[in-house]
Amino acid sequence: MKWNTSSSSSRNVQHYLTCARSTRRNNFIKARTFYGAISITRSITTTFCLPVDHHRPPPAALVSPLARNNVIVARRYFGQRPWIAKNSKSIQEILDTANMQIESAELTAANLAALWSTIPRLLSKEDVGELISNQKDDEDAIIECEDQIFNILELVIHSLDAFNPREITTIILGMAKIVHNVRYAKQQQKNEREKMNIYQCAFGNVLDEGNYQDSIFHPLAESANYILADYEPRYLSNLAYAFALLGYNPKFDDGSTLLANIADSSIACVEEFNEQDISNTVWAYAKLEVTHSPLFQAIGDIVVKNHNLESFTPQELSNTVWAYAKANEMHPGLFDRLGNAFVDRDLESFIPQHLANTVWAYATSNIQHPELFKRVGDAIVKQDDLTSFTPQNIANVVWAYVTANKRHYELFHKLG
Q1: φ, ψ at 265 (rounded to 5°)
Q2: Mean of the per-residue pLDDT values for the chain?
Q3: pLDDT digits 0-9 by tens, 359-415
Q4: CA 275, CA 333: separation in Å to the nearest integer?
Q5: CA angle at 291 for the pair 290 and 295, rounded to the nearest 5°
Q6: Which of 58, 11, 49 has its CA nearest to residue 29?
Q7: Can you tell me the distance from the alpha carbon of 43 to that of 106, in angstroms, rounded to the nearest whole number?
Q8: Distance of CA 284 to CAs 115, 196, 237, 374, Å?
Q9: Which residues contact 269 (CB under 8 A, 6 or more apart)?
Q10: With 90 as the cut, is the pLDDT of residue 130 above it?
Q11: Cα–Cα distance between 283 and 272 in angstroms, integer?
């Protein structure tokens, strides 16, 4: 359903945001300038105590957009501003500029969505920010960063009805990639390989702590679910992929789940799926362990009948067969076509994980494709060394050949 500030999920978000902010800095949302505050007064003023000058009449040009009770709709009325979030060079630039535009009511829906898609890319850079060193200065910097993130997040949550499918999916996918990055960084720090940086800590505290799923991602899922009928294949697959990264399949009041509803919408337009849509979709359902045989059957049929497999990337080929095997979905025609596509490729472009996951998928599904196993084995034997193979890659390859009863003496000698 659409965002409703009287709903229980809305109250959860308001409680989460309020408590999280008060815990770290003990302050509520900063007062917006008149143009920002008046547009959301009816829905959130009573909760967040936003000061609004009711005696100051709005400009005539703003009356119609603001009557829609949405700040972002008003921003669209004016059109794009010069700042383009995706062109930003640093996370701090994004946070600073976005917060300034929130205060001046200049942040557009497009930039609000784009900034969430840009942050994950910048967050992965080695020089994204200083590493934490458990000093007081670092704690202050993290808290300041969290406050800026909360300001942006509050605007997102209170403007959900304004986003179109592309924008809401871009926001969710960006947040999911941030969470994925943070979780990986936490694991690396736990293994004492490298420390987290200030931005990873701040985003982790905001998006990946406490009741973040119910308080943040569930309302986002509700908003997307309400307009799911308007989704194009690309955004359906990205939405499923995003929640798979989060490891979360939201359940709604009517008993349905987001992934079940995405599947129904996807089947209706499956003929329009491109290679990435196919790969991302089946990977998401396998990763979340969500069973939906009609969806897998429909996608498999389309791959067999219509798709030019030369346009599949190595990762898309590998992820697709891995997903069918992981989900225990049998589609012999799909495995046969994709297996032939593997055989026809130059396997030097396949990284070790692609090779290992592919033979694992065929062995797991008990699909016979001798030429595939021979070509993969030959490709591994040609490697100068196996330093690029993880222990898990090697274990999966050995298990696959033993399980499928495929003999490749040069391969086992190489692995031994």
Answers
A1: -70, -35
A2: 80
A3: 999 999 999 999 999 999 999 999 888 999 999 999 999 999 999 999 999 999 988
A4: 17
A5: 110
A6: 49
A7: 20
A8: 24, 27, 8, 29
A9: 232, 233, 236
A10: no
A11: 18
Strands (DSSP E) found in 313-362 = none
Quote the CA–CA distance of 390 and 415 in Å, as a whole number: 12
> What's the CA gap between 77 and 74, in Å, rounded?
5
Q: Is the pTM of this model over 0.90?
A: no
The secondary structure of residue 251, as a DSSP letter, is: B
Give the HSE-up count for residue 207: Cα atoms under 13 Å, Cβ half-sphere.
Answer: 28
Within 8 A by CB and 6+ apart from 76, the residues are 65, 108, 109, 162
- The DSSP code for 39 is T
Secondary structure of residue 197 in the 3-state scheme: strand
Q: Mean pLDDT, to the nearest integer, of 276-281?
A: 97
Three-class secondary structure of residue 260 per DSSP: helix
Q: What is the pLDDT of residues 184-211, one digit of tens each?
A: 888 887 776 667 888 998 999 999 887 7
Q: Which residues contact 220 (CB under 8 A, 6 or more apart)?
A: 156, 160, 168, 171, 172, 175
Please report the pLDDT score of residue 186 as a whole number.
86
Q: Which residue has the tokens 């996918």?
A: 173
DSSP code of residue 32: P
Beta bridge pairs of residue 131:
197
Cβ-contact 273, 266 below 8 angstroms: yes
